[in-house]
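New here. Your pick:
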Amino acid sequence: MIVADASFVVDALVVPRRKKRDEMYLRQLNRHRRSKELLSFFLEEGFQLYIPFLGLVEISSLLVRKLGKRANVDAALEFLNEYFFVVPEKNLEEFLLNLARETGSRAADIYYISLAKMKGAVLVTADRKMAEISKDVGVKVILVE
């Protein structure tokens, strides 16, 4: 079982658009390629993929910020709803409040960590801070850098 956070999903779906082909662009491009390969692997191998409902909101927002109003958010949401189990906030309430008290982490991060903890799943993220907190609370993590 895999819980994918918004940073990982967006990195997998969107090629970096940085105009300057510098070291930062190359890091972003490499992270895009690794994320895309990893997501493809999960799909091909039939892994159960999970995302909290908040993830749909975050991904929608990130796509518009990265691609502008022309972003095809509906296609991304269709993809997520087809291949991911979307978990409503109501199902996570107990875990959310407990982890918030325990870690003091960013609220959005708590959704992904809580879902991974609840499911006994591996959390896949491009967020180093989220990865560190996840490990501290006993969640296995794949950090895509």
